[in-house]
Amino acid sequence: MAEALIWGASGGIGATLAQRLKADGFRVYGAARSPERLPADLDLGLAFDAADPKSIDQAVLSIAQVSDGIDLVVYAAGDLNAMSVKDISLEAWDEVINSNLTGAMLTSAASLNLIKDGGLMIFIGAYTDHVILPKMGAYAAAKAGLEVLVKVLARENRKLRFTLLRPGAVDTPFWENAPFRLPKNAKPPEEVVDAIVSHYQQGHSGALDL
Do residues 191 and 13 touch, judged by C-beta distance below 8 A? Predict the structure, then answer.
């Protein structure tokens, strides 16, 4: 049975992906900052804090005790704090950087101990040139850093596959924190999930732009 691990499995994309993979016969492990919001049918639900390596290591240890090896890891966690560079506090800046970038680094490093050779890691990125906007400094910086991180991971781990997914606007609660309206052409999370599943099934890696 194929196994998947989703970091950020309580969000719009993460929860939808978890439910789809379960329906497709995967064993699915999910982690989130608020574990009470995780889908109920996960094989294992866990708490993690993107800025706390101990919480991530504990989650990985719990998964290792029941897993035969992970085939697909997805980092779908992320946050947005819409404030200008002039006004944003260091704490608010760190929250955005941690959830979108530092957490991706920490969870990917820890997940390397679980994933099978040939396995795929997917990170939810953004079209950074589209988010270089007022009040989006922390978010844009984090997503730009994520692009570089994924490329470095791919070069350091040649036996694995790595993908940066840039979905554009997706109709999820994430937009409640954005300083502008949800675009009319925003995709439903199901469309993004379909692309992730297809990408995995076809054995692809590298950039995935929707």
Answer: no
Classify 118 in phi/psi space as left (phi over 0), alpha (psi -120 to 50) or beta. Answer: left
User: Could you read off the pLDDT of 140-170 as tens digits, one per residue?
Assistant: 999 999 999 999 999 999 999 999 999 998 9
The residue among 55, 205, 58 whose CA lies nearest residue 123 is 205
pTM of the model: 0.95
Cα 83 to its chain centre, rounded Å, is: 23
Q: Give the separation between CA 150 and CA 156, rounded to whole angstroms.
A: 10
Strands 70-75 and 115-124: parallel
Q: What letter represents residue 96's amino acid?
A: V
Cβ-based neighbour number of residue 114 at 10 Å: 19
Q: How far, in Å, CA of 4 to CA of 139, rounded?
A: 27
CA distance 140 to 103: 16
Concatenated DSSP letters of 50-102: TT-HHHHHHHHHHHHTT-S-EEEEEE---------TTT--HHHHHHHHIIIII
Beta bridge partners of 75: 7, 123
